Amino acid sequence: MSTLKYTLIYLSLCLINHHAHAQSVCISLFNETPVKGVVVSALKGTYRVFGDSSFIMNQSEKDAMYISMFDHRLLLRNSRQPIGNFANIRFEAVDTNAVIRLNPVNPNKEPRQYNDNLLVSVAFERVLLINEVQQSNYIAGVVDAEAGPNAEPEFYKAQSILVRTFLYSNINKHKTEGFQLCDGVHCQAYRGRAVRNPVIVNATKATSGLVIISMDSSLITAAFHANCGGETESAANAWLTDQDYLLPVKDPFCQNSSSARWTKTIPLVQWKTYLKSHGFKFTAGISPGDFDFMQINRKQYYKVGKDSVPVKQIRNDYKLKSTFFSVVATSKEIIINGRGFGHGVGLCQDGAMQMAKIGYKCDDILKYYFKDIRLIDYSTLTSQNATQK
After folding, report:
1. C-alpha span between 21 and 36 (Å, rounded)
2. What does DSSP say about strands 307-310 and 374-377: parallel, antiparallel, or unpaired?
3. Other Cβ atoms within 10 Å of 342 Cβ, number
4. The pTM is what?
């Protein structure tokens, strides 16, 4: 049996173990980095170390181990001596408050801290690092990474509910790869345990089990972004996927944020060349003013005469902060005056933070940005679905 097949079987067993202990989730770490070597340290508590399911030793606080990849196997050593080579290594937390530290050294990456267990194997030509982590610890870590450390408790509660909703609706996004979610932004940004503000951990606990459902009792698409610039975007415009609860919302709460306004200047000659590459045809008498474009409310297309290009195409090509922008042209350049930061769909984080600061509760914040939704305990939802079946 090949090492990869053995690894995938091992990881499948880990997923089975997850279902047996439904409060944990398996997250691939440094998922976008081809890790070849990593230092693993126990920062707090004790870990039991297993190689190919056999107990090897205990790893105590500050004790560092080095794992490298060679010939599709894992070489394990500590500061004193080589320990052995294995197909899989497991670091199992003995203490409930145990913390493990990962420091990739090939290539070099900033170290991160994680709660709970670590599973290590070789897959996809890299050292595969999987955090088998309690869901509450994972959710708090995502909120810390996605929302920052300086907001009010009611905002963190709202963000925690969104993160939990995403988790349950995408729980097996990477199942065929042997884990459930990764730490990249296309899942949810996860940079390790929440350490910057204890309010985040408390907010996660205070909302334990709560998720958001739509009128048909389905988990919503739990979208959020940094700043909408004064009006959120519809899912239909952003993704061509219509959702009744993801409609444009006027948002006065975010407009004093530093992310609410931005500008970019482009030479007019370059702009004309760009538009021509998208099929625009200009007459000899076209004037700079013909390139002006105003978005008081969000639009899907930038137009000059009868020609048009999607604003999200312009955003992608010029790496703009959002699609919510206007254009003013002079004889030499065009000035893009932009609003907001991100795709604009769902909860506006800057707006939600301000709402929490002036006294709104987490459910009021969520119902402001998502229309006709309900908050429900996930266990109740799964019980209802099981009864209907």
Report:
1. 30
2. unpaired
3. 23
4. 0.90
> String of b and e for 254-265 (b: at least 16 CB within 10 Å)?
bbebebbbbeee
The closest alpha carbon to 95, from 77, 112, 116, belongs to: 116
Instruction: Write out pLDDT tens, residues 263-317.
Output: 999 999 999 999 999 999 998 889 999 999 999 999 999 999 999 999 999 999 9
Same domain, yes or no: 228 and 272: no
The alpha carbon dihedral of 13, 192, 259, 226 has a sign of: positive
Q: Which residue has the tokens 């004309």?
A: 272
Nearest to 183 by CA among 358, 14, 28: 28
Within a 10 A sphere around the Cβ of 126, how many other Cβ atoms?
15
Q: Which long-range contacts (CB under 8 A, 24 or more apart) does 246-252 make?
A: 246/220, 246/221, 246/345, 246/346, 246/370, 246/371, 247/371, 248/297, 248/298, 249/368, 249/369, 249/371, 251/348, 251/351, 251/369
8, 163, 235 from 368: Cα distances, Å: 43, 17, 16
Q: What is the pLDDT of residues 150-184, one digit of tens each?
A: 999 999 999 999 999 999 999 999 999 999 999 99
Q: How far apart are CA 297 and CA 310, in angstroms?
A: 15
Q: In a 3-state reduction of DSSP, which class is residue 65?
A: strand
Within a domain: 183:
no
Range of the domain at 322: 261-339
332 and 362 co-located in one domain: no
Contact status, residue 115 vs residue 91, Cβ threshold 8 Å: no
343: buried, middle or exposed (CB in 10 Å: 19+, 13-18, 0-12)?
buried
| DSSP per position, 302-343 | EEETTEEEEHHHHHHHHT-S-S-EEEEE-SSEEEEEEE-BS-
**How far lies 375's CA from each of 58, 164, 206, 272, 346, in Å?**
43, 12, 14, 49, 15
Q: How many domains does the chain have?
A: 3
Structure tokens at 54: 């056999």
Reduced to 3 states, what is the DSSP secondary structure of residue 293? strand
Shared domain check, 356 and 296: no
Instruction: Pull the structure tokens for residue 14.
Output: 């880990």
> What stretch of H or E contains 133?
strand 126-134
